[in-house]
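Retro notes - structure team

What went well: the batch runner handled both jobs without manual restarts.
What didn't: labels got mixed up in the shared folder, which is why I'm recording both outputs here explicitly, each with its sequence directly above its tokens.

Job 1
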Amino acid sequence: MKKINAKLSSLLIDQEQWNKSIFLWLLILLGIALPFLLVTYIDSYFKDDVNVFHSWVDCWNQRTYIECQLKVSPNYPVAGLALSAGVIHTIISTFGIIERTTVDLIFRYYLAFFDSLNFLLFIWLAKLMRFPFPIFIGMILLIIPSTWVGGAVWGQIDGISLFFCLLSVICFFKSWRFNDIDTANKKAWESGIYLLVGTGSFAIYILTKQLAIFSLPFFLILGLITAWRFWKLFQYKGIVWIFLALIFFIFFFRSLDSLLEVPEQFHNSSYWFVWKGGGSEHGNKISGNGFNIWMFLGRDMRSSSHIPFLSLKLGNLQYNFSPYKTGIALYSIFISLILFTCGKAIWKSCKSKIWIEQRDKAAGYLMSLLCLFHGLCHFGFNVLLSGTHERYLYLGYPFLLIAITWFYINQIEFSLRSIIFCFFAALAYGCFVFSIMGPLPQILFPFQRHEFLASLHLFILVFLLDSWIHISQKSISSIGKISDNSNNNSNF
């Protein structure tokens, strides 16, 4: 009788595990299918951007940024041009389709494929960060409007930028090998492969859209930590891998960057050309239909950002403060502050004994700190600089949300109210972007107002900066203490 009861108990346990596995696989399939369903059932998309990609096809065919029958040259680097105009050309030539609407739909399904891959990368990143339920974290990040509106639904390649950014970050994290306990059996080549894949993905990410420049402070810190980790794990073999990755990056970046013809003065570099010769001039306006603090001047958002809003005269010297120059100054101060505090916090954590005592929590803390730093880099420029576009926060929100969620789950700094408020802002931002393509329900009218979004995100930026300073000042060795006392000291 005891054997029968034991057998029945075992069957019940197996059935429960089987049901759980089925549910998780169904959730993954739903996450993969959701971007395609959104493209299928949401007819609205931003045709102007897709039409621009069509107009670039001629340049792609001639492999040149000049003399391609355009009044304005393409303003994406070579990877962005290939992944937009190049793909549209492939769709037309492969399927023989002339009808523009059908080509656009296939192009948006192609973008949805990358949105689905991003969902899987969200899960992978959440797993690396030691979330208890990484699939649920991935699903939450996927369904929040700030993630899906600006990609395939819109008809833009920002989802592809996010893909290469996520892949690069994950590969760098994987190369650190925090899961390994037996240091004697570590294989340098495994970490080296992840390092090379991450380096290659980083090169493509930079050459996709100019927005990647705001990720450079984050990747600088990420690269320094990776170099430290390789030295700690593999000593001189690690240094060899780091130099190999640098050489590979330079060669791969330069090979891609010089694929298309550009004017001689730009050193055969598409990246340099779009910044100095053929790039957009959004920064010369108050706003490129985005929102920032300069909306509060009450000027037309399309007006010049070089017109002073304040003049100060000190003796014979006169200082004119324009949104353009003042925004650059504010963002420079902002990025310098968080870069310094991030470096200081990471330096303390690298020397801490917690890597031996609480390896998993320390690794999750470091990854979350870096993701929060990356999110702030993008958040800051959207709020402080002139000329911001409506979709420019697309890359910042996923890193920001996954970071603050980790800190909340581990009872560090963030309260439930602050997490809800940040997710509400992501919802509001997604609705704002969608309202540019199609109408929102009347009850959501505040989400269509630039001033409302500017006020909301200015408040969040100040709140996040305050939380960042508190987190970066706390010693990583006090994670356990922070967890015990977080309910009394949490902000907001």
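Job 2
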Amino acid sequence: MSNFFSFRTDVEIPITVTPPEVELSIIKRLGKPKFYVSNNDFFEVMQKIYKNSSMKAISVLKKAEEEKWSH
């Protein structure tokens, strides 16, 4: 169990980032929560949040990949 959370550096795991088949699928499935009281459109707000967080995650992954190969 002591090795369960350790990282192996001798194995490459390919990662492919692709757009989802249905944009905002979980938000569309669950709908606007009852506690959302803003006058702003919930789906537009969530779309911006998802887009920004996705772009940030992709840039972090790219930067990590570039740093890995620059050493």
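One thing worth noting from job 2: The chain has a mean pLDDT of 85.
We'll revisit the folder naming next retro.
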